[in-house]
Amino acid sequence: AMGIDTGDFVAFDPRAVWTDAGYIKSRHLDDKAGMAAILGLLEHLSSHQLTPKHTLKIIISTYEEVGHGAAHLPCSLDEMIAVDMGAMGADLTCTEHQVSICPKDSSGPYDYDLTNALIAAAKANGISHAIDIYPFYGSDASAALRAGHDLKAALIGPGVHASHHME
């Protein structure tokens, strides 16, 4: 009756709410939270006139949720840190107050040295973090590796409660 057919795109109102306790509740929060973290990094670098030690390229994928987000990269990279949500659950340690560092997901392990460098950086800077494995999860880094890109990959993300459950 609405004219929606197989294969049509349907968008739902995310119903975003900023709570009195300072939390944001919304559908699709994983990608929004990741983008907020990236924009926060860029703002920090700019406002403090900091220059990264290495060349920094920000690549924003619009296909992460369907599994082929970074299969095509427009440039050559040595390392890739994918930013997605840190899932929460009964068998996971991440909370919405932490950054998640994922050493392994459904695609297999991420680069050991790069992952451990992120863990060491979190510890050295007093950043609350959790290290969790996501056996039913994939990221843009997974897609890049499956596509044959020769790079070291890691996965991090802000702790997000129930993003996909809300969807």
Give a written overview of the molecule:
There is one protein chain. The chain has 167 residues and is an alpha/beta fold. The chain has 4 helices and 8 strands, in the order ββαββββαβαβα. The chain has helices spanning 29-47, 112-124, 140-146, 163-166; strands at residues 17-18, 24-25, 79-83, 99-102, 104-105, 108-109, 129-131, 152-158. The strands form 3 sheets. A 4-stranded mixed β-sheet has the order 3-8-4-7, sandwiched between helices.
Helix and strand arrangement:
Elements: E1 17-18, E2 24-25, H1 29-47, E3 79-83, E4 99-102, E5 104-105, E6 108-109, H2 112-124, E7 129-131, H3 140-146, E8 152-158, H4 163-166
List keywords for this structure.
4 helices; four-stranded mixed beta sheet; two-stranded antiparallel ribbon; alpha/beta; 8 strands
SSE order in H/E notation?
EEHEEEEHEHEH
Largest sheet: 4 strands, mixed
What spatial form do the alpha-carbon principal axes imply? globular
What's the average pLDDT? 90
**Oligomerization category of the chains in this entry:** single chain
Uncertain stretches: none
By helix and strand content, what is the structural category?
alpha/beta
Structure annotation, total helices:
4
Tell me the distance between the termini: 23 Å
Binned, the helix content reads: 25-40%
Q: Roughly what fraction of the amino acids lie in strands?
A: 15-25%
Across the major sheet, the strand order is 3-8-4-7
Mind telling me the C-alpha Rg?
Answer: 17 Å
Short description:
The chain has 167 residues and is α/β, with parallel strands linked by helices. It contains 4 helices and 8 strands, in the order ββαββββαβαβα. The protein has a 4-stranded mixed sheet with strand order 3-8-4-7, with helices on both faces. A two-stranded antiparallel ribbon has the order 1-2.
